[in-house]
Amino acid sequence: MKALHRRRETLPAMLLLAPFLAAFLLFFLVPALQTFWLSLTDSSLTRTSAFVGLANYVTLVQDPSFWAALGNTFYFSLLTVIPLTLLGLVMALLVDRFSRAGPWLQGAFFLPFVLPISVMTLIADWMLQPSAGVVNHVLGMQRAWFADVHWAMPMVAIGTIWWTVGFNMLMFLAGLRNIPRELYEAAALDGARGWALFRHITWPQLKPVAWTALVLQLIASLKIFGQTYIMTTGGPYNTTRVTLHYMYETAFTQSDAGYAAAIATAFVIVVVLLSLLQGAIARRLGGAK
Amino acid sequence: MNRRTLLALLALAPILPSHAAEVQLVRMWTLLSGGDGARMRALVDEFNASQQAVRVESTTLKWGEPFYTKLITGSVVGAGPDLATIHLSRLPNLAGGGVLRPIAAAELAAVGLAGGDFLPRQWTKSQYQGRTYAVPLDQHPLVLYYNKNLVGKAGLLDERGQLKPIEGMAALTDALRRVKAATGKPGLTMESAQSSYAIWRLWLSLLAQQGLPIVANGRFAYGAAGEATLARIAGWFQAGYATPGMDYPASTSQFMGGNAGFMLNGVWEVPELVRGSKAGTLGFEYGIVPLPKLYGDASAWADSHGFALPANGDKPMSAAKAHAVLSFVAYVSRHSMGWAEGGHIPAYRPVAESAAALALEPNAQYAAAAHNVVYDPDGWYMGAAGPLEAIASKFLPAPLAGQLTPADALRRFETEAARLLKKRAPLY
């Protein structure tokens, strides 16, 4: 009887899962496996010539350009992951705190997130123009920010934070609104307020959200490509060229799809390892559930 | 007509001879934009109006790497156009990789063209392993533009108002210094921001003037002289004779605005000067000379546009289509006087050597450049928007802005490019 009941649930479940499963197989798993296969070959943009085993990976570990690009990717992540998460939390707390202005704030904070990357990069580019940009106007400078080896990456990071912080705010806001009001009422009766409320109720309840936000943000930041590709074209002299940009150039400018696939595969491994590491740290600190 | 006859006619339509079936449609992809694009569009329109048998439809795509990526992938899967404009500097990459289809001498003869009709240097550059892969259209060398008003104040003009000959690196540097001293404006403008190509082209020209190869036996071979040459150029910027960090539009508008004595650029900026001069908006008199002899000779970087036929995978072109395509190419060759007004030097000799072309101003001022042109050296990674130029455009501008020493910039350039030199040419 129970088995029959289970079977009755299996079919609808399979049917409901099927579209996602098909898309996952067709557009993710199969291409991912093909990419791995490609990384073991000597291939141009369009033609697979010969199986070369791990030769591309041997080249990769000795390739200073790859390590430099990976370093730039980490630098960008360092500049964005924690600021984006913290700022998202602060914005969510502000929206939650001010009941009247809250929705307006929420709209203002979230608005940049809806911009396409081309619009966002154009705005950033205009604001940072050496002679006509508003930033230089306010600072009384003529700095070419995106051509400056020290400022290019931080400026890309600031643009990205402005652009995407709205999403993190929404996540924290959802978390905040899930905290039972009774907890605050009970604590208030015991005389707790302000910082004590945040430290003993809000933060412990928000921790899982915070860790999720951090993991998602880490993956998003490591995947950076469009912003630097458009705003700095990887310059000056490759100091803002990130891993995916190097992969793109290898595949399309240099017609070396085999090596580009090796870069992609190695990068996936790095991202997965970092995500696992972060998960392990989260469990150590008792944040993740 | 009743319904039955109509149906019968419709059923027969595919086998009935019709006027539409006789017109050969030629699809062309070009990377020509701006003034070049407008001039090519005009040639296409004139050709379409001149006859009924062939109709050319031209599509303009984004210059540079996107164009070549699309051409390569399109041709490989058989979805490429019937005709494409390319840079001859990319021929070893495109012909060697199997992207293009060779053009037989008989096919050219059928539309009245022969190898001897084209200037020898361009014709040679259209060959790959003994076969013709392109019909050359033009040549566009690096030249030296000058502002007569500013340069005159520095005492650099002769009594006829022409630039006094400049010979040697020291003489050019001195000329730039004198313009700066006499007018307070930069002596030179050239594209120098990150991702600029101009410095690669100038550096390549000056290496050729010293007889130095860039690459020999699969290694970079320019050595200390290459570094010293880059340092001399960077020196102009460090001394304030030129403004560093200018992108292409900023550098050309600095010159067009009358704010620099000289401009180093390709001849493709000629139409803008002609237009401004005619409209009276330019505000100064200009002159153009070939890149001076700064070292051993007067070699100057140049590239050429040419027409090529994509191989289109397993969908080879019919003989009738090939004839139609080449008849358009022949038409453009014969009418390339209009193309010359874009500043380019035509490759088709009957036009290039005609009295009209030789008298065309301002082209006549720099016509001598044609005798000393050097292309990017042969190699699959060479050429316009090719892999090596792309890498050079990242590192070579840095010393001009004082961000890297010339030695450091070249070291980084070589590190990044080393993998390219070792790799064998890709097959597509």
Describe the structure.
The complex is a heterodimer of chains A (289) and B (428). Chain A has 12 helices and 2 strands. Chain A has helices at residues 2-38, 55-61, 64-97, 102-110, 117-127, 134-139, 152-177, 181-189, 195-222, 226-231, 243-253, 257-284, and strands at residues 41-43, 48-51. In chain A, a hairpin with a 4-residue loop joins strand 1 (41-43) and strand 2 (48-51). Chain A is globular and about 75 Å long. Chain B has 2 domains: 10-137 and 304-359, 3-Layer(aba) Sandwich (D-Maltodextrin-Binding Protein, domain 2); 141-300 and 371-422, D-Maltodextrin-Binding Protein, domain 2. In chain B, the strands form 4 sheets. In chain B, strands 7, 8, 11, 12, 13, 15 and 16 form a 7-stranded mixed beta sheet that branches. Chain B has a 5-stranded mixed beta sheet with strand order 2-1-3-14-6. In chain B, strands 4-5 form a two-stranded antiparallel ribbon. Chain B is globular, with a radius of gyration of 24 Å. The mean pLDDT of chain B is 93. At the A-B interface, helix 11 of A face helix 4, helix 19 and helix 21 of B. Chain A: It comes from [Empedobacter] haloabium. Chain A: This is Sugar ABC transporter permease. Chain A: Keywords: Cell membrane, Membrane, Transmembrane, Transmembrane helix, Transport.
SSE inventory with pairings:
The complex is a heterodimer of chains A (about 290) and B (about 425).
Chain A lengths: L1 H37 L2 E3 L4 E4 L3 H7 L2 H34 L4 H9 L6 H11 L6 H6 L12 H26 L3 H9 L5 H28 L3 H6 L11 H11 L3 H28 L5
Antiparallel strand pairs in A: 1-2
Helix pairs in contact in A: 1-12, 3-4, 3-7, 3-9, 3-11, 7-9, 9-12, 11-12
Chain B lengths: L2 H10 L6 H4 L1 E7 L3 H17 L3 E7 L4 H12 L6 E5 L3 H6 L8 H6 L9 H6 L1 E2 L2 E2 L2 E2 L1 E10 H6 L15 H15 L4 E2 L8 H12 L5 E2 L2 E2 L2 H16 L9 H9 L5 E5 L3 H10 L6 E5 L9 E4 L1 E4 L10 H16 L2 H4 L4 E2 L2 H4 L2 H5 L3 H4 L6 E2 L12 H9 L1 H4 L5 H17 L6
Parallel strand pairs in B: 1-2, 1-3, 8-11, 13-16
Antiparallel strand pairs in B: 3-14, 4-5, 6-14, 7-11, 7-12, 7-13, 7-15, 9-10
Helix pairs in contact in B: 19-21
Protein name (chain B): Extracellular solute-binding protein
InterPro entries (chain B): SBP
Pfam families (chain B): SBP_bac_1 (PF01547)
